[in-house]
Amino acid sequence: MARRHPRTTLVLVLSGLLGAMIGFGIAVIRQSLDRSVRSPRQIRKELGLECLGRLPRMVGASDHLDEVAKAPFSRLSGSLKSVKTVIGLVNKTRSIRCLGITSALPGEGKSTVVSNLATLFSMSGIRTLVVDADIVDPKLTKTFVPDATVGLIDAIKDRQQAKRYVISATPHHLTYCPPRGRSQISQMFCIPSRSRCC
Questions:
Q1: Total domain count, the chain
Q2: pLDDT value at residue 196
Q3: Does residue 174 lie in a domain region?
């Protein structure tokens, strides 16, 4: 009886096909489980919203709070100028008096976007009020109006006199409405912090 030898070529082809199918299956599963946003087209498709612009990745975002004034030709400045242009075009068809900027996670650059976008509007002659509603870590207030003792919480309590709690800041002729001191905010909203809230 003759000994049978394995068909090496056939085994290699079948192994390659099986490996490719398994790899393709894993890639499809990973893609379907991945919920991160990778392109403006994905935002349009999944959320039905238009993407106004794409910002470059920044290291040390707090160093870029006045990028459009300090480095008007940087990538960040260019991206934000595009966003401002799109907002201006939309504003011609319907009046935009208020923009809300937020993010899902801390450290994603909302303070940088707010500060620079507000500076761009202010530099183009539009009266601009920045309401810093970040009561946990108000970077804009710490940077531009660190000595503020009145602000948003007072304006909410005293709506008739809300204008009294707005602060003019010298850089770029912006006007700020900062969150008030952390202790008063903690008393009003009972924010958990290092010390216990009663």
A1: 2
A2: 44
A3: yes
Residue 183 pLDDT? 41
Q: Which pLDDT score is estimated for 180?
A: 66
Of 123, 148, 171, the one marking the end of a domain is 123
Residue 154: domain span: 127-198
Quick one: 131 and 182 in the same domain? yes
Say if 78 falls within a structural domain: yes
- The answer to whether residue 158 scores a pLDDT higher than 80 is no
Tens of pLDDT, residue by residue over 89-112, are 877 777 778 888 888 788 788 888
**What band does 147 get if pLDDT is binned at 50, 70 and 90?**
confident
**Do 112 and 131 lie in a common domain?**
no
Report DSSP letters for the chain, one per residue: -PPP---HHHHHHHHHHHHHHHHHHHHHHHHHH------HHHHHHHH-------PPP-SSGGGGTTHHHH-TTSHHHHHHHHHHHHHHHHHHHS---------SSTTSSHHHHHHHHHHHHHHTT---EEE---SS--HHHHHH-TT----HHHHHH-GGGGGGG-EEETGGGEEEE----HHHHHHHH----SSPP-
